[in-house]
Design goal:
With 203 residues, the chain is an all-alpha fold. 67% of the residues lie in helices and 0% in strands. About 18% of the residues have low confidence.
């Protein structure tokens, strides 16, 4: 499970993807890394909620399957904004504001970076889960492993220094993703789990 999650996140924050996101958003590599480190826990929680929701799982599987064939370097910011609205729901503004505050990147640029990253997130999930031949339950199980507390424990030593997200708080934590269910203990540990991995990948 940990290997699968690490593989997903490694692909997501590859140097090529970081470069493409920065180019599309008009942001520096440093800003892209800071924003993704802060925001990805919330995006992954939203993806997990979509994948496990009774009314959203089938549509989410179709979306990641469709994006799995996206051409590298081709990013549609309009599509990305729509994806964010599904992943973050009513919490999108709060998450954007919190990420801007935590990362030190202005809100407009944060919005552009997240819109550029969202299609890549779905593409990576589609490729890594082989979505075209997977069930929604399998995708939900894999995403559940990405945000699991067990993974956070295994990878807790990867970050040498403290990170705001490691304290257990996460950007936009006061708002739920569009179709998220009441939080469980596993979901509440999302920030520590994902950021532990991201901290090592984005150094």
């Amino acid at each position: 499970m940990a290997d699968a999650a690490s593989s997903i996140l490694s692909a997501l924050v590859s140097s090529a993807n970081i470069k493409n996101i920065g180019k599309e958003a008009g942001a520096s590599t440093a800003d892209v890394k800071k924003v993704l480190t802060s925001a990805l826990p919330s995006l992954l929680q939203g993806a997990n909620a979509q994948a496990s929701g009774a009314s959203t799982a089938a549509g989410f599987l179709q979306a990641i399957s469709s994006h799995a064939s996206d051409k590298a370097g081709t990013i549609d910011l309009s599509d990305g904004a729509k994806i964010l609205s599904h992943l973050l729901g009513s919490g999108m503004t709060g998450t954007t504001n919190a990420v801007a505050k935590e990362s030190g990147v202005d809100k407009a640029k944060v919005s552009s970076i997240l819109a550029a990253a969202a299609p890549i997130l779905l593409s990576v999930l589609g490729q890594q889960t082989n979505a075209s031949s997977s069930s929604s339950n399998a995708v939900a199980a894999l995403l559940g492993s990405v945000v699991s507390n067990n993974m956070g424990s295994i990878l807790s030593g990867l970050l040498g220094g403290g990170s705001p997200a490691q304290s257990g708080s996460k950007p936009g934590s006061s708002s739920k993703p569009g179709s998220a269910k009441p939080g469980s203990g596993k979901k509440q540990d999302l920030a520590g789990a994902a950021v532990n991995i991201l901290g090592s990948l984005l150094k």
